[in-house]
Each structure stands twice: as structure tokens, then as C-alpha cells.
Amino acid sequence: MVRGAWDAAAARRAGYGVEERLPGGWTVLRAATAEGALTGRDEAAGWVGVVEARVLTGKQQVKRVIPNDPLFGSQWHLNSGGAFNQINVTGAWDSVRGTGVRIGIVDDGMQTGHPDLQPNADTAIDHDWNDGTPDTPEPNTAFDFHGTACAGVAAARGGNGIGVSGSAPGATLVGLRLIAGFTDDADEAAAMSWRNDVIGVYSNSWGPDDDGQTLEGPGPATAAALRNGALTGRLGKGCVYVWAAGNGGGVNDNANKDGYANSIYAIAVGASTSGGSAAGYSEAGSNVAVCAPSSGGLGIVTTDLTGAAGYNSSDPGSNEPADLAYTGSFGGTSSATPLVAGVVALMLEANPQLGWRDVKEILMRSARQLEPASGWTTNGGGIHFHDKFGAGQVDAGAAVAMARGWNNRPVMLTESLPVSGINLTIPNNATSGVVQTFTRTGAPLVLEHVQLTLTATHVARGELEVTLTSPTGMVSRLMTAHGDTGSGYAGWTFSSVRHWGELATGTWTLRVADRSAATTSLGTLTGATLTLHGIPGNLPPEVTGAVLSGPDAAGHSYSDRPLTVSGVTTRDAEGNAVTVACQWQVSGDRFSWADAGGATGLTWTPGLGMSGKWVRAAVTASDAGGAGVPWLSEARPVNRRPRQDAVRNVPWGYDSDLLTEALPAAFVRAAVINEISQGQSGVREWVELLVTRTSDLRGWTLTDRTGTYTTFGAVAVWAAVPAGTLIVIHNGGDRDPSLPAADSDPAGGSMVCAHNNGSLFAAGTWGGLSNSNADNVQVRDAGGVLVDGVSFNSDAGHAPAFGAFGVNRALRFNGGMEAAADVVGSWTMTATATAADVTPGLANGGDNAVLVTGLRTGPLFAAEGLPVGLGIDPVTGMVSGTVTGATGLYAVTLRRGSGAAGAVHGFPLMVSDPATDELDEDADGLDNVLELALLRDPRRAEAGPGFRVLPGMDGLAVEWRVPAGATSLRVVPESSSDMVTWHGDGAAVVVLGDETAGDVRTVRARPVAGSGKRLFFRLRVETGP
Directed axis angle between helix 356-366 and helix 396-404, to 10°? Predict the structure, then answer.
């Protein structure tokens, strides 16, 4: 396969057949044998005009990620061929599977040994509040089937060749056994708080009785635990509590009577059926955020207790799977809830920085409307809602895509508008009811959650209908009339998500009406408080998308070519007029950025001074409320444009300033702490240092708050430790079995040393890293100056500072830049300190691996395709020399570094022979580059100018043919009246069309008339993109 403006006759003369022409100027040639194809590549590369030649080799592509689990075909909620009744998850699995996210299954237990759950189960931190003997979530197989089924819906291991898949097949499951027996407020609070530093999602398919009579919510301790988990859990980003809306739809129960599901800190989930309609059992409610497919028509296929216990018995007449470890009859909002919990895990893998409110908004904004079409209302914030479906059926693919580019919500504000001292009689069986208004003034507030706390008397509260209407006219049916015979509402708090995104300012209307004649008693409205939660109004608009113009060559832009931002889209919560501004920024290391002085506007030409730097665009949307958070484009390295012509026996040189991702910024610190482990017991601890520049470590110390662990000895091995060396120092008194063999030689890139090795260290005492009390690890140089430190267990002495860091846990730095070492988000805290979770003596993956490689080897330069006589300096990247090789067109490739961390720059180089003419090799009067642009052979003289002049009614035109894929050659038509002064004058150029194969394009231009008669025409060729 060859690319370029080449002579097809040369291929035929060499015995190759033209098989197929492809876009981009590629042509497939057929050789007589496989060996001929292999040897013919070099021959074809030498043909005039060929920019690149490759051998086509076959490869087997991998199908999109679809699990090989035998029951996956029955999991219609995940895999129904694009139908409306599934959650669009398989496409998301191509990039995320929930890996690294823990889902707590708060339920009646979880069978951790189930073959489809065991690979994902974290048994180190599970818990049992019911009997606690032993403290495991294992269910009572006679009664407790529910939690194991929920766990499978959320995160059964997919792709393992058995059973089923969860919606997040790579997520980690934590069994939290709570509802297999009686619990109290303290138990529930403990469950909602359990390990909320590492459990990101809590799936709760339980709540008060769905009998239509029960009005019940969490106790004060549990309510506080939910609030605390949402505000401070998951290391400050907030835990996500997913809650079943309830299965009382058959008795007209309402999700707003469940104080767990209507907590603003929970995501209430309803259920839709396999037919894509509302499930009759699923409770309506203004607090329902989204719905998900569940039973109703078809059941949900998921994990069941192994053996004869569980939902799937050995009844031969059932439609259950033959394997008793699985069931096809699970359902209800109990199943819809863990399905959404799994989707949340996918979102958090795609964007771990999402807050709890961000997750909720993304789920609602990305949800799909279901039938029927009636009952849907779009609020003032642009979100559609239905009483049964919430904002719609969850769409995993859309939610993950939205999560990737999401800008987190600002801090939530809360305002309360209480009304007291009222005593309004509620007329019997009258739709008009009584009305109480609330007027909200002041600074604009964009709403999220709305709560209404109601005090009203009535002998049968089920006869009361409660509605709240916002200033935009959006109605929340906080409660509908039903058969509840309980007495009134004594300060009960309803909630609604139906006003999300609306502005709060204006008059809100509460209406309480008795809608039944079943009793003749009159009710009384005696108190109401409207609570509004949201973010500052007239929010600055967001830039939701933009496109940076494509690179000039292999991911790089040339300093003399303009960069352009196009396709800018914005979003403004209030719908105000938006203006867009662009500031171009520059960096030497891709970490620290500064504005490029005077570089504003959507188009910018960097200039030679930017060569060898990274640039990016910061696009900001503004309205009267101010400027939003800038949208940042990809970082683009800038090179100076290469010379694309050379003359034999004449010196030639080029410095590309080629940048690479593997080039670490110069470190101020001589070393950083790269990994810490508490070990597999309380004392098997170790610390790993990464040396960032060749350094003398003699006299350095490793300490914690209690004192010095060890001092680097005055020995030769520490005198000049190379950059990139990883040094593991461990407690010599109790060695961790996960550590590799002892190694005191830095030549291999890593060392593993006991703190009490007298040949390496002076005497010291390993005091032991605290498992619960505030502590830190410090590295100090010979002068006692702090080099680096890490704090934990609420110690704030050094950044980064982590929370609980106890036994069997490890911390590892994932970053690639010095500043990242101080950022908590650049580290991973593992749940165990076993060999599966720690990497002593090895890089930690991702950017850290790039950093270590770059420190050890340096991103050295190399070149391919240079003509004989030219060479590249492997350190500076300067290409120089005198060409002595053959004339012709060379495809030059410069490389810096290797693999994904490296950088590549390719360009064509035409070598001419001065014996004829350095620019006109065949001496036919046309420059070599012009001949290539016009599909001529620069080595062979041909008659004619390579274009033709055509008369027409509106003047003369010029027509020529060019290679369709030659984007680096631009042909500009010019005209003149005296052959001295030539004019382009913005001649209108029209592409008449491409030939059938698509590799040759016919172009016509009509030069614009100027002063005097234009009698002469010529074509000028510009090289470069």
C-alpha cells in the first residue's frame, strides 16, 4: 500500500496490479506472492512521489466488550439489541466497567463465595449488624435471598464465562448485612457511615412498609449519617446513596411517604417494565429521580443463593435457569436500585471527581423518556419529569459520556421560608382546598432539591392532596389522595427534584385539598416551611464543547500555522445571552500554564517563539453574571516548520523542538515518596522513595512523628543515586512477604533494603506507622531540610494529607509531575496491602510509569527515513549534515521517547541535485514541488505547463489536477499583465470533483480581474499544511 503523488505506470512496469484506491491518497497494490509484497515495500518506497509504503498484514479485530456469560442473553435489561427497555450499557463497557469503585450492598446479606460475586467481593471491610457471629455478610440461606440477588444486578463479574453480568461488572462489592433482623437508628446510622472513605456507592433496596399506611423516615442518627456521608464521604466528594422508591404502587402508596427515599441525600429509583412502561408496583413521587428496568412482563436474571436455597428452587415446572445459583424472577424497585448503583459506579470510574449532586443531575439530564407520552412535563431548567418515571429511564452510555466532561456543581446553598401562626380550614371534598404562598426574593438561586415541611390535621391523611407550584408553573404533586387512614401530618417533610435547574425567585404556591368524601371531618393547615437548596443564581454560563483545529503533523502544530477553535457550544442556566472569549496559554511542562501575552481570539498563530512549548486554548463563556469556568483544549506541542527541500552536497539542518509526554519537568525536590504500605500486619511496613535527579543521599533520614526510623549511611552506594531509582526501605524486624528480594544495587533501577541493614544505614528504630492516630512520613536531607512528606489519619503536617490509613492498606502516587505529588487526587489508597495491590520497587502505572521511565532513560531522539548524509543528535534532536544520498522524495520521521509516552513528527523532504537545478531536477522549467503538485514526474521532462486556460462568458479560468490527499501542497493561481507583478487577489477556487478512485482532484479558478488586462497566468505552490 503506497501513498503520494506517484506514477502508476511504475507499478505496472514492476509487475504490480492496482487493487484498490483508498481515501487519503492511499493505493493498494497486489504482488504475485506474499514474499513479493514483503520485498516490494522497499522498491515502492523509492518511486518518485511515494511518500510512504507499507505492507498490508491481516489482523483479527476484537469485538466490542460483550460478556461471554451464558445467561447474558437473558439479561434483557442490559442486552436487548438497542430496544427502549434496556439501559444502553454495553457501549459504556468499552471504556469503563466500574473498576476501582466500591458498591456497598446494604441488605439482608451477600453470599461472598458465590462464583459470580466472589471475584468482585471485598471481604476485608464487609460487616454484619444482625448477628455478627462471625462478622461477615453471609445470609441465612433459609430466609435471606434478597441481597445476593441485588449484588448480582449491580456488579456480578462479567466476562468470566459463567452466569450473568452486573451493570458494573468490574466494580467491587462490599456486603453490609443490616435488614435480616430488627435494627435501630444506631445500626442504620452505622451502616450508612461504614467505611465511607472508600465505599463510594450505597445500594439500598429496603425501607418502611409499602402498605399505603406507613409514614416513616430515618431516625436522627441515620439522617445525620446520610448528610455526613454525602457532604464529607469519599474523601470529600460525597457518597452516593441509591434508594428504592418502593413497591406500594398497587395500593397507591407514594415514595414521598418514605423518609429514606425522599432524603435529598438519596437518589430515589422507580421501576419500568420489560415493555418500557411504568411498573404498576412502582411508587410515584416528586422525589423519584430516575427509573430503571425491572420486573413486569419479564423478570430480572441475576445471582441467587447457590444450591436449592433462594428464589430458584428445584421445581421442574418453573421458568428459572437450570443453574440454581441464578434466578430469573427477581424484580421490583429492589432490582432497579442496584442496577442504577452499578451505572453510578461506571460514572465514577469515568470521572472520579464527581460530587454526589453531580451524579444525581447527570442521571436526570441523561435519562430517556418512556411511554406514555402523556404525563411528561419539562420544567424551567430544561429537564423532563413524570410522576412515575422521575426524569426518565437511566441511560448508562449517555450518563458516562456526560460524566467525562462534567463541571462540578458549586457548593450548595440552602434557604428556608417558614410560615407560622396559620390556621386554615381545609374544606371537605373540595378541589380548591386551601392555599398558602411563599415569596422568595433576593439574589438569584438556581434550584436543586426543594422540600416542604407540612403540619396539618385530618382524621385520614390519605384524603389530602398536597401540591407545590413553582414561580415557573411547574407542579410537584407532593402527595396524592389514597387510602391512608393515619392521622394528619405532624411536621412531615416532603421533597421534590422536579424543580431542578429552575430559578427560585418569585411566588411559590402550596395547595392542600381534601379530595375524598369518605369522611366528613374537616382538616386544618397549621404550619408550612419551604426549603430551597441550590446554587448561586445567574450562574456564569458553561462552555459545553469546542474543537481545536487538527494538528499539522502527527499531533504537532507548526509555529507559523494558525490554531483555531471552532464548534463552541455553551449552556446558560437562565437562558441569557452569552459571549465567548478565548485566551491561549503556554507551558514548558504541561503542568504549569501561563497566558500567552496578547494571544486572544479563536484563531492564533503561535510564532517561532512558541516552538518547543505546549499551547492550549482556554475558552470562556460569560454573561451579565460573570465568566464561567474555562473550557481547556488538549495540550498541543508546537514545532518550527521543517525545511522540505535539500540539495545534494549542500549543508542542511533542522531543529524541531520536538516535545514528548515523557519529558518530566525539572524537579525541585531530589526525591518524592512514591508508595507507603502499612503491611499485612501492624508492623510489616515499608516506604518507597523515587529519586528524581541524580543525588547524594548520604546523611538523609526517614522519620515519622515519633522519631527517626533510619539514617542513610556514609557509604559509596548513596553517593550518586541515579534519577529514576526506586528505593524501598522496610521494617527489618518483620519483613512484609509482598516485598521482592533484597537488592542494594541501584544499577537495576530499584533497591529493596531493610532499615537495620548496617552496611547501608546507620542505627535507627522502626517506630511503626500509626494505624489510627495522626502520623506522617518524612524524608529529610543531610542538613535536616524536609525533602518530602505524606500525612495521614487526620495529620495535616504535610501535603498530601489523607484520612484513615490503617493496617493492611497502602498509598501509591500515580502522578507524573512534582506538583501532583502534593495532591490527594493523584494518589490511590488501596483496601489491602497484599501483592495484588502494591508495587514495591516498580512504577505505579499511568503517569507514574511515564515519569519513572523518563527519569531513567530521558526521552532520547531518533530519526527514520533521513537521506544519506543527514543525522540526528540523540540528545538535542538537531538534524544536520550534508546530503550525499540519492535525489528524490524522502518520508522523514523524527521520534522522541518511545511508546505511548513518546512523540513523533513526520514530514516529506525533497532532495535535488545541483548538477541540473536544485529546484528543477528534469530542467523542464517547472520546480520539483510544482510538478509533484500537478501530478507530473519531476525526474522526466514533460511538455506543457501542467494546467490549461479556458475561455468563458465571464472571463478566463485556469484548471488543473492535483493529488486529493496531498494536504501539504497548496496550489495558488496568479495572474499578471506584465509578468513582473503577479496577483492572487483571492481568486475563487472551485473543486470540480474527484475522479472515481478519489485520489485525483480537478480544480478550477477564475482569477479576479484587476487594473489592466491580465494576459499571463501561473500557479504558485506553497508547501506545508
Answer: 130
Q: Which residues share a beta bridge with 616?
A: 585
The predicted structure's pLDDT at residue 663: 46
Residue 59 CB: number of other CB atoms within 10 A? Answer: 6
Other C-beta atoms closer than 10 Å to the C-beta of 316 total 7
The answer to whether 95 and 400 are in contact (CB under 8 A) is yes
Collapsing DSSP to helix, strand or coil, 931 comes out as helix
- C-alpha grid cell, residue 236: 470529600
What pTM did the predictor assign?
0.56
Grid coordinates given for 880: 544536520
Question: How confident is the model at residue 583, as a pLDDT?
Answer: 95
CB 891 within 8 A of CB 867: no
Q: What is the pLDDT of residue 918?
A: 47
Going by C-beta distance under 8 Å and a sequence separation of 6 or more, which residues neighbour residue 899? none
Sorted by sequence, the CB contacts under 8 Å of residue 233 that are 6+ apart come out as 193, 196, 197, 199, 239
Sign of the C-alpha dihedral computed for residues 747, 748, 749 and 752 taken in this order: negative
So what's the pLDDT on residue 61? Answer: 42
Fold of 542-641: Immunoglobulin-like (2.60.40)
**167 is written with which cell numbers?**
451493570
**Active-site choice (282, 334, 495, 750):** 334
What SS3 state is found at 249?
helix
Pick the closest to residue 851 from 1004, 726, 1016, 984 (CA basis). 726
What span, in angstroms and rounded, lies between the C-alpha atoms of 978 and 1016? 8
Could you give the residue range(s) of every CATH 2.60.40.1260 domain in the chain? 671-857
Question: What pairing do the DSSP bridges indicate for beta strands 2-4 and 50-53?
Answer: antiparallel
Q: What is the predicted pLDDT for the residue at 41? A: 67
Question: Using CA atoms, how far apart are residues 505 and 989, in angstroms rounded to an integer?
Answer: 56
Phi-psi region of 947 (alpha: psi -120 to 50; beta: other; left: phi over 0): beta
CA-based nearest residue to 397, from 88, 154, 81, 98: 88
Active site residue 314: no
893 and 903 in contact (C-beta within 8 Å)?
no
* 8 A C-beta contact, residue 741 and residue 751: no
Q: Which helix (H) or strand (E) holds 399?
A: helix 396-404
Burial class from Cβ neighbours inside 10 Å (0-12, 13-18, 19+) for residue 889 reads buried
Pairing type for strands 707-712 and 445-457 reads unpaired
Spatial distance between the Cα atoms of 1004 and 1021, rounded to a whole number of angstroms? 15
Q: Partners of 382 in the beta sheet?
A: none
Q: How far apart are the first and last CA of the chain?
A: 23
Quote the CA–CA distance of 283 and 261 in Å, as a whole number: 11
* Residue that is written with C-alpha cell 527517626 in the block: 708
CATH class of 928-1023: mainly beta
| pLDDT value of residue 265 | 98
Q: Which CATH number fits domain 75-404: 2.30.30.90, 3.40.50.200, 3.30.450.20, 3.40.50.1000?
A: 3.40.50.200
Q: Residue 566 corresponds to which cell in the numbers above?
A: 471552532
Which H helix or E strand runs over 291? strand 288-293
Cα–Cα distance measured from residue 348 to residue 199, given in angstroms and rounded to the nearest whole number: 12
Any catalytic annotation for residue 334? yes
Residues in the chain: 1025
Q: How far apart are CA 741 and CA 598, in angstroms?
A: 57
Which three cell numbers, joined as nine digits, stand for 888?
528524490
Instruction: Please tell me which residue in 77, 114, 127, 146 is annotated as part of the active site.
Output: 146
* Cell numbers 491561549: residue: 584
For residue 169, is the peptide bond before it cis, meaning its omega torsion is within 30 degrees of 0? no
Task: Report residues of the chain scoring pLDDT below 50.
Answer: 59-64, 661-665, 900-901, 915-918, 1009-1012
Point out the catalytic residue in the list 69, 77, 107, 499.
Answer: 107
The values of phi and psi at residue 548, to 5°, are: -85, 135
Q: Is 146 a catalytic residue?
A: yes
What is the assigned CATH class of domain 413-536?
A: mainly beta
Q: Tell me: domain 646-661+858-915, CATH 1.10.1790.10, correct? A: no
